Amino acid sequence: MKNKNRSILLGAAFLMATSAIGPGFLTQTTVFTDTLLASFGFVILISVLIDIGAQSNIWRIIAVSGKRAQDIANDVLPGLGYFLAFLVALGGLAFNIGNIAGAGLGVNVLFGLSAKTGAILSCALAIGIFVVKEAGRAMDRFAQILGFVMIGLTVYVMIVSNPPYGEAVVKTFAPDTIDIFAIVTLVGGTVGGYISFAGGHRLIDAGLTGRAALPQVTRSSIYAIGIASLMRVILFLAVLGVVSQGLTLDPDNPPASVFQLAAGNIGYKIFGVVLWAAAITSVVGAAYTSVSFIRTFSPILEKYNRHIIIGFILVSTLVFVIVGQPVLILVLVGSLNGLILPIALGVMLVAAHKAKIVGDYKHPLWMTIVGVIIVIAMAWMGIYTLTNGIPQLFK
């Protein structure tokens, strides 16, 4: 039983982490490192602290209540759960189109097939995971294996690029510049939208809930952030190694050029594997978590949960194949996802102090204070991004 719980907790951690590590994650990390150089380490440090504060709060409250986020939200205020589910599902669908596109591009790099053909093949594989009888276990194993593959290959590119480790450490704590937009982007890309609930809802499905499980759940939530952050740091150092040599990244595909400049054609093929692994695990995580937000609203939705997940993946693929990558939609919903975190975390914090939801559980005061600070900061920064960023898209 102990080994089974450990496997579930590790699976939940990797599901969350690999959901965060998608095509956008690779591009954001590369672009910001190219702009901020070693000072990007400070952005990573601050975002990791915010991520841990947000995620540990959310996972603990989901675990102790034994309910999914949308049901908790409806208990806090009737109808709020439906609103939250709508936001998460909309954001998950939009990002899944981008994830499918990334998977297709990964196949294109590896085998020369068109991105659309690669997307269709990747779609078939993702669907296959939810067709098998033990879908949950298959999903856990899939996320773990590809998570290790991504990290291992990126470590190789980091070593080859030979970054200035000392400078990176110094600037992480004493940066030349502080970029608020970069911090918001990284937090939104790691625990925004559906991502912060991926592991928590997986634990619910596996039956790992209750006060007795809280120590394990808290550790698992921190492991999840740790895995995603480890990949972020390794990629940051790999990019830093390349740009510190005075090499110029390709603006059309910055991450690919990092791998190619660092390790030649082999590096380019490695990028194909990393991009595909990052994209396909995000496809699985986005579909699973987005659908988990609506499955409790009706017995029919619960009964046909796996069929709806498969449909979610099919629709994402169909949109990409027919329309192509809808950049404007992805940017718009990306901004929307930046607002989902403070809404969702705020709801969780209110729920943590309602006896009808958590019983006689007492949520640690320091966690509540940290959570409130994150809610206020992310709400302000999210609104700032919406009011100042989106109007620029239509000019």
From TrEMBL:
<dbReference type="Pfam" id="PF01566">
    <property type="entry name" value="Nramp"/>
</dbReference>
<protein>
    <submittedName>
        <fullName>Divalent metal cation transporter</fullName>
    </submittedName>
</protein>
<feature type="transmembrane region" description="Helical">
    <location>
        <begin position="364"/>
        <end position="386"/>
    </location>
</feature>
<keyword id="KW-0472">Membrane</keyword>
<feature type="transmembrane region" description="Helical">
    <location>
        <begin position="142"/>
        <end position="160"/>
    </location>
</feature>
<feature type="transmembrane region" description="Helical">
    <location>
        <begin position="109"/>
        <end position="130"/>
    </location>
</feature>
<feature type="transmembrane region" description="Helical">
    <location>
        <begin position="75"/>
        <end position="97"/>
    </location>
</feature>
<keyword id="KW-0812">Transmembrane</keyword>
<dbReference type="InterPro" id="IPR001046">
    <property type="entry name" value="NRAMP_fam"/>
</dbReference>
<feature type="transmembrane region" description="Helical">
    <location>
        <begin position="180"/>
        <end position="200"/>
    </location>
</feature>
<keyword id="KW-1133">Transmembrane helix</keyword>
<feature type="transmembrane region" description="Helical">
    <location>
        <begin position="221"/>
        <end position="246"/>
    </location>
</feature>
<dbReference type="InterPro" id="IPR002052">
    <property type="entry name" value="DNA_methylase_N6_adenine_CS"/>
</dbReference>
<feature type="transmembrane region" description="Helical">
    <location>
        <begin position="266"/>
        <end position="294"/>
    </location>
</feature>
<feature type="transmembrane region" description="Helical">
    <location>
        <begin position="36"/>
        <end position="54"/>
    </location>
</feature>
<feature type="transmembrane region" description="Helical">
    <location>
        <begin position="329"/>
        <end position="352"/>
    </location>
</feature>
<feature type="transmembrane region" description="Helical">
    <location>
        <begin position="306"/>
        <end position="323"/>
    </location>
</feature>
